[in-house]
Write a structure and sequence with these properties.
CATH class of the largest domain: Alpha Beta
Structural class: alpha/beta
CATH topology of the largest domain: Rossmann fold
CATH superfamily of the largest domain: Nucleotide-binding domain of ferredoxin-NADP reductase (FNR) module
Number of strands: 12
Strand content: 25-35%
Shape: globular
Bound molecules: flavin-adenine dinucleotide
Length: 255
């Protein structure tokens, strides 16, 4: 099984994990290689933004499973799993249609937005690593939270930006959310018109974006990073240099 890691800044109130058979009610093609698989949320069951589910297909893979962050908000009637096509499990998922049955178990995980707190939130995501962060942003926008969020979001090309339209709408609707996009494989012909940043999320980028956004009068923000290990280490180093306490630097590792 895959593992995930985070500092234990704030454990969620104990949520009861259950295992159930869920019907996939909708499949949404988000980008060329990412799909959202939608399920109805069971009654009397919830999760905290950032948590994940384990997915099983016992008839195909026996006891093997994979973890998927919930991209929808806990307020939604649906559970959305937004998944990138990659290897064994995901190739099987790509053969499934609406109406298929999935075995789900959860929620799990300590990489969460503590919804009781009032401090600002720095989110850093690469590619499909945006999924737990999306749940947090959706939740904060729905409840009209006055916490400020900065999302620094890296992708290869414009067509790979998962949730791009929705994120742009959220930014227009919620003045507390700022999103900075960076692209690592932007074609030369698009460079003139691309309004965001280019290149991988690196130390200089994190530092300058954080310093521009951070409100120095308030409590230290919490940072939540989901992406490759190099990015996680970079963020930890820069934020530590900027004086952020360790407990405000959280991360999730997908691979
Ligand atoms: C807590 C947690 C939450 C997760 N949430 C999501 C999510 O929301 N969406 C999502 O798509 N995935 C998510 N994952 C990853 C997911 O669990 C699987 O690892 C992924 O879907 C690949 O499974 P597979 O069977 O298709 O590939 P496998 O056959 O397992 O892939 C083979 C190898 O490729 C590596 N690998 C898989 N995907 C990538 C990648 N994109 N880049 C680099 N290496 C990779 C794996 O480590 C493995 O060694 C999450 C993982 C964890 C631990």
């Amino acid at each position: 099984m895959h593992t995930s890691t985070t500092t234990l800044q704030s454990r969620p109130a104990k949520r009861k994990s259950i295992k159930w058979e869920a019907e996939c009610i909708e499949i949404i093609q988000e980008t060329p290689d990412v799909r959202t698989f939608r399920f109805e949320k069971p009654e009397d069951w919830t999760f905290v933004p950032g948590q994940y589910l384990m997915v099983f297909f016992p008839e195909v893979f026996g006891k093997k499973n994979r973890a998927y962050s919930i991209a929808s908000s806990p307020n939604s009637d649906y559970i959305d799993l937004t998944i990138k096509l990659y290897g064994l499990f995901t190739h099987h998922m790509w053969t499934l249609t609406e109406g298929s049955t999935w075995t789900l178990r959860g929620p799990y995980g300590h990489f969460i937005l503590n919804t009781e707190r009032k401090n600002d939130v720095l989110l850093l995501g690469a590619g499909v690593g945006v999924t737990p962060l999306m749940s947090m942003i959706r939740w904060a926008t729905e409840v009209k939270s006055d916490r400020r969020f900065l999302l620094l979001y890296s992708n290869k090309k414009p067509k790979d930006i998962i949730f791009h339209n929705e994120l742009q709408a959220i930014e227009r609707m919620n003045p507390n959310v700022k999103i900075v996009y960076t692209l690592t494989r932007l074609e030369d012909r698009l460079k003139q018109s691309w309004p965001g940043l280019t290149g991988r999320i690196n130390g200089e980028m994190v530092k300058s974006q954080v310093m521009e956004w951070q409100n120095n009068d308030g409590e230290t923000p919490t940072s939540l990073t989901c992406g490759p290990i190099v990015m996680i280490e970079t963020v930890e180093k820069v934020l530590t240099e900027l004086g952020w306490p360790k407990e405000e630097i959280q991360y999730e590792k997908f691979w």
